[in-house]
Amino acid sequence: MPNVTSTVIVPVDPTTAFAVAQTTGDVRLRWDPFIRRQYFLGGATDPAVGVQTYTRHRWGLGMVSEYVSYAPPTNVGMKMVRGPWFFSQLAGGWRFAPTDGGTKATWKYSFHCRPTWLAPLAEAIGRRVLQRDIDRRIAGFARGCRDEVVLASVRDAGGEAT
Length: 162
What we know:
By secondary structure, the protein is α+β, with helices and mostly antiparallel strands. It has four helices and seven strands; from the N terminus they run E-H-H-E-E-E-E-E-E-H-H.
């Protein structure tokens, strides 16, 4: 399965980094260039294993994804349940580990494209496009970990911010 990974060191503790990565609404839009809109489905108000979310990408593509792991403050994983026709599978995982001066955040996407006969070319293009997207997204996340509005929101929600 093709995958792309991006890593950054942020100047906050893992609990805060994890909380920033899980922000929603206008706070999320302050730092996440990937999304135009995102919300929980099925009446859920908090992330947890089995909870689904709807995400509209900045290009207008929509996707329903489901939490497959949720272990604050160390990791979260999601898989696509329904999404763009050209993905037969798409999953993402985020890990947070303490390091000198903050937290090492590693984000990874894994995917398969369809149709099968086009997959080798589509996946080569997908690697480039998704690598650019994940690099921009993690750079936005790093900015969010320095943004006083985002950090205040995390503090107000019960997360730490240092």
